[in-house]
Specification:
By secondary structure, the chain is mainly α. The protein contains 15 helices and no strands. Keywords: Cell membrane, Membrane, Transmembrane, Transmembrane helix, Transport.
């Protein structure tokens, strides 16, 4: 258990430090926004580029991981939507927002730093694979469904769906993570070597992502609402931390039934751990146009705090089975 706490604790100590310094006024929200932009637009893209460009293409494209993580995410999305509609009686749009919180992991800001400590040999590979699934499949699908639901039914709704799909594609084409992913794939496929000064510069940016990204998470928790809505968002947090990794684990177990070779243990554990992370930090921002920001923010706080216990338990279980 001490070994598990040694893995998980540094991440949450940095989160607590980010929260405490922001609460004390050492850093303001505007400064945290600048830190976050640096991580999202420079440090993480450099990390994703290195994760792909420095490996052979066969080590990057892992069909079993992509298939299982996508299947688990889609199963969680569909199950969460159905539960929100039938059990909680929510509208179509609110059910989609509940599902978004349950199937979208914070792979970059929390997932990668924890994998770097727990499974360093596959951490960058898992991050690159998650970038593909989350930014090319799950998030665009959710955004298109939400945008379509916000428009009128009928012909205008169909046109709205097509427009939303095109807008999502344009947004993806400008996403620094996707650009870094494609650039890394090109370098890997062509087996190119970056000039040493350029390669070291990219590596220096990549190394800046770990602690800073987690620190930003802590700072952004300051001022987010929790009282009064915690019980309403508890199902979102529980679904994200418990059911999403279960769905991915079941999908991984089903790979041999589909004729797909099972993953190596470390990569399999990495997929389950990535699914067990709290939801992405931009969840409240994505929910803003639909009047769901307060609940989304409360769910983010609850899931981030509770994940200390759930991730510790999951790491303990993995160690016991191993």
């Amino acid at each position: 258990m001490l070994a598990i706490l040694a893995i998980v604790s540094p991440i949450y100590i940095i989160i607590a430090l980010g929260y405490a310094t922001t609460r004390a006024g050492v850093f303001g929200k505007a400064e945290l926004l600048a830190f976050g932009k640096f991580v999202l637009k420079l440090a993480l893209p450099a990390l994703v580029f290195n994760a792909i460009a420095q490996r052979h293409i066969a080590d990057i494209i892992v069909p079993g991981y992509l298939l299982a993580y996508t299947a688990g995410g889609l199963a969680m999305l569909g199950g969460a939507y159905a539960l929100a509609r039938k059990a909680f009686g929510l509208s179509h749009q609110q059910a989609l927002l509940h599902a978004m919180g349950m199937c979208s992991s914070n792979s970059a800001f929390i997932g990668y730093p924890i994998l770097l400590l727990a499974l360093p040999g596959v951490a960058t590979t898992a991050l690159a694979l998650n970038v593909v699934v989350e930014n090319v499949v799950l998030l665009p699908l959710l955004l298109v469904l939400l945008e379509t639901s916000a428009r009128k039914a009928g012909a205008e709704g169909a046109a709205g769906g097509a427009a939303a799909f095109k807008a999502t594609l344009k947004q993806l084409a400008r996403n620094p993570l996707i650009i870094a992913l494609l650039a890394g794939l090109a370098v890997s496929l062509l087996e190119l070597q970056l000039p040493a000064p350029l390669g070291r510069s990219v590596t220096m940016f990549a190394q800046a992502s770990g602690a800073l990204s987690v620190f930003v998470i802590g700072g952004t928790l300051v001022g987010l609402p929790l009282r009064g809505v915690s019980m309403k968002v508890a199902p979102i947090a529980a679904g994200k931390l418990l059911l999403h990794p279960l769905m991915v684990a079941l999908a991984l177990a089903a790979l041999p039934l589909l004729g797909v070779a099972p993953l190596e243990p470390d990569l399999r554990n990495a997929a389950v751990l990535m699914a067990a992370m709290p939801m992405m930090s931009i969840y409240p921002l994505l929910a803003l146009p639909y009047g769901f920001t307060e609940r989304a923010a409360a769910a983010l706080v609850l899931a981030t705090v509770a994940s200390f216990g759930t991730l510790s338990a999951l790491l303990w279980l993995m160690g016991s089975f191993a």
